[in-house]
Inverse folding.
């Protein structure tokens, strides 16, 4: 009697496991979060690096650059707990993307 109950419990557990595995495999594929640039900053900022910092393409209109700059600065502003270093790099990236003079590069 105990052996029969054990076999029945094993069969039910096995059936549940198979159904759970099939449901797991049939779930819709959810796109992963956007992967961010993992590298550090270069000694002299390039247009490519500036575009990566702002999250825009290298060839983009000024309005998109300004919008991206605002969005990134809101998230990283020093008054809101962000880093002064990152804020200076974000401002430098905006200046490079807008074609402004890079004579006064980042203070860091």
């Amino acid at each position: 009697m105990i052996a029969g109950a054990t076999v029945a419990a094993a069969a039910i557990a096995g059936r549940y496991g198979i159904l759970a595995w099939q449901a797991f495999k049939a779930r819709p594929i959810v796109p992963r979060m956007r992967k961010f640039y993992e590298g550090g900053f270069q000694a002299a900022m390039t247009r490519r690096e500036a575009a990566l910092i702002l999250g825009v393409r290298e060839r983009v209109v000024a309005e998109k650059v300004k919008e991206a700059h605002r969005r990134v600065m809101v998230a990283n502003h020093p008054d809101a707990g962000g880093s002064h270093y990152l804020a200076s790099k974000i401002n430098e990236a905006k200046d490079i993307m807008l074609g402004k003079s890079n004579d006064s590069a980042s203070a860091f």
